[in-house]
Amino acid sequence: MKYFLFFILVNTTFSEEKEVLPDDPGARTWSHIDGRKIKAGIVDANSSKVTLRAPNGKIGSIPLSDLGKGDQEYIKKWLQNNAKPKSFGDPDRIIEITTLKGEMKYNKPVITVYPGKKIKLILRNNDDMHHNLAITKRGKGKDLKVAQEAWKLGAEGFAKHWIPDHPDLLFSTKMADPHSSATLYFTAPKKTGKYPYVCTLPGHAQVMRGTMIVSKEVNPLSELTFTSFKGSWKKIPDWNKIEPTGTDHVPSGKFDLSCSKEKDNFGLVFRGNIEAPKSGDYIFTLSSDDGSRLLIDRKVVVDLDGIHGVTSKSGKIKLEKGLHHIEVQYFEASGGEELYVGWRLPGAKKATALSVNKGPSGGNSPSGQLLVVEDEARIYRNFIEGAGPRAIGVGYPGGINIAYDANNMRIALIWQGDFIDAKRHWNGRGQGFQPPSGQSIISGTPGVPFAVINSPSDPWPKTYLRKDNAQLPAIKDGYFFKGYQLSGESRIPTFNYNFGQLKIIDRPIPKGAADSSEASLIRTITLSGENKSNLYFRAAVGESIELVEENTFLINDLKVINLKSNEKPVLRDIGNNKELLVPIKFINKSATITQTISWQ
Length: 600
Fold this sequence. Notes:
mainly beta, SH3 type barrels, Immunoglobulin-like, Jelly Rolls, 5 domains, 8-stranded antiparallel β-sheet, 6-stranded antiparallel β-sheet, 4 helices, 43 strands
């Protein structure tokens, strides 16, 4: 019954063409024992049956015993060419790459694999032409060198599947027949980097190419495409009513604004698949200038519509393990443009970027006098946007930066990448606030860091500064900033201030380089003096504060804070917000808090 149904599906593809010889790897016409001819390609096969795909896309299985002797020999040869090596074992990952009919392209211009993992790669050829896939060593142009060597095979090319002997060739499939497939088993290189892959058949290599990225962070996105639009909008429009200006696969394999050739008045709609490695709650984050929207399985998860500067927003959705459809809509009106897309897996403390932009920004691009940080920390004292008029910017070696608010004794901003552009303040009259020049900007806790709270419902005081409260003595109950000292070869600053009679030392030190998984800021705060009852440190404020593991908290789905002290942190609700407080316990007239701040 199974093969009868198959013939019903593909009966429009029967022909009386001459049977192709068994050793010919070209398009095949199969001979059935009842005398009929079937034109189709191999999808899969084993020792008892073969699964075929007709040119019209219909798929069905047929017992090998129902095929002619020559066809059975051909299947044996196909199995040998696509067999898994005996010592290979089970693959760690299965990747399918499909050829696009009539386009001379792979459907995946980028694939990502872990170093040293076992890979099963299936090349599905939906085209009417033959194709293969060859992976080469790292290096620009090595794929074309291998292809050029293949073209020299001449009359031997077909028999050798157009695969040459070349020192830059790492792995390759056999040639896949039209509407057929070829399977390759290999172990990914241990060295991270970009490894080109290419179809080496004559005339194919210039357009039929891709990149295998070997990375410790595998891209969960696949088959990502973009559609571009030109127009002026104040909100995300109905894209179905607008004529697109172009569509293609995204070369980088991630959400990327460079897919548009425009700088203003344009829109992009990205569509593809995202693979959830396990079932659970996933948090997606958008940061954009101007409007954006993220949908999973056609359900809106994050809506960040409208014209605005760089703004971030997160949303949560429960996903089952496996592939899901993802769509990101974006439009840019005028001025700066930015798009960051990230997700946080169930149980993870940090988010992973799904966009070329690795983190929410908020700064300006350098405009002429970028302060470069080399072997020593660099200090910039001026008006910094988000840190106030008494800001102290610190650029650390390695690409992590902070802005310290000397009015409120707090770390106001942390960011990665470029430090700051001094052009605004060094040229002319130097008015206004200068934003950071880097990216992945996260804001610190607002207000003063320490306060006396006599009741759990008491609000955090807005100020302890004498200039804002004339009844406070200069030092007795208020704050007094005493400056900073530079120490060590890198000249790292340590900030000093008093709160009443307490002496406080605040020493922030970066850990790891910018963009690394270890990138964070370790802040050690030491208090000296007589014990003060009901004294608290306010570590965080946010609409959402989630305990992810012991003494580690996720703040607004954007940053992670770990706390170490003599007392356990206290989480309380104040109005529409939550506050994370640390009770201060003195031992021998001293107390220490270690706060580690990292990007989620």
